[in-house]
Amino acid sequence: MQPEPLHRVSLIGAPTDVGAGTRGASMGPEAMRVADLQATLESHGVEVLDRGNLTGPSNPWQPPVEGYRHLDQVVAWNQAVHDAVHAELAQGRMPILLGGDHCLAIGSISAVARHCREAGKRLRVLWLDAHADFNTSLLTPSGNIHGMPVACLCGHGPQELVEIGGHAPALNPKWVRQIGIRSVDPGEKRFVHEMGLEVFDMRFIDEMGMRHTMELALATLDANTHLHVSFDVDFLDPEIAPGVGTTIPGGPTYREAQLCMEMIADTGRLASLDVMELNPALDLRNKTAALAVDLIESLFGKSTLMRAPR
């Protein structure tokens, strides 16, 4: 008899950069496939179905209208993401959303929040990113919605995005832990404090270490907690991950990132994942995609030391 798979994973590509300020993240899903994401996960006993790529409107590359760039297109993509992610969760599968820019987390996490409401589960979101992504149209002149997803999920944004999951707000800020933050606009910083987001910025990591950071971020998880990780590749230091549109120096090193992922894996609670903002147009020989796959592998059991499986 074949052993039962440890996880049943569905890969969902969302090839769009419609919410970003730089073109190229639309090629991210294919870069992760080229870096052998499916085979890598299968080598750890994971059953993987690649659902292919979602479809949506093209990027019109227009200036902001009433504070938002490409709002109609962003809504269409996020609705498609929401429906696809929710369908996988309803089948008892773990969705891995391959972005695409980080505006797509609105659809992904609103679907996860909806699933948790339906299943009576608690939700914890780990937001691994260089940016807080807590802007609103009043706080940023760019209008790029990839800088707004956490604010939208917490109820601060255009109605069409705030209500995608059928419940507004989709998230309580107290359910979110942000890790690796090092670039926050002044108005956004005030708003983050007002809303009570728990942020472990790079100074905290420098002072306290990644181990203590992750112990706090993962505290109080229990058997009824759905853990969602939204991993923006610009979380990593650009020296090791150049293939992103918004490089911010001073991010986690390779070993710090590996420890972060290994400690998430140790909880046994990971139930959904976004991998966002990988931009092959700015990468070097697919280096950043290969690193992203390496870190995803650590979420599924690869470890530096031999440890007994939990």
UniProtKB/TrEMBL annotation:
Binds 2 manganese ions per subunit. CDD domains: Arginase (cd09989). Its cofactor is Mn(2+). The keyword Protease does not apply. Gene3D superfamilies: Ureohydrolase domain. SUPFAM superfamilies: Arginase/deacetylase (SSF52768). Pathway: Nitrogen metabolism; urea cycle; L-ornithine and urea from L-arginine: step 1/1. Residues 1-27 are annotated as: Disordered. Keywords: Arginine metabolism, Hydrolase, Manganese, Metal-binding. It catalyses: L-arginine + H2O = urea + L-ornithine. Its EC number is 3.5.3.1. Belongs to the arginase family. NCBIfam families: rocF_arginase. This is Arginase. It comes from Rubrivivax gelatinosus. The lineage of its organism: Bacteria, Pseudomonadati, Pseudomonadota, Betaproteobacteria, Burkholderiales.
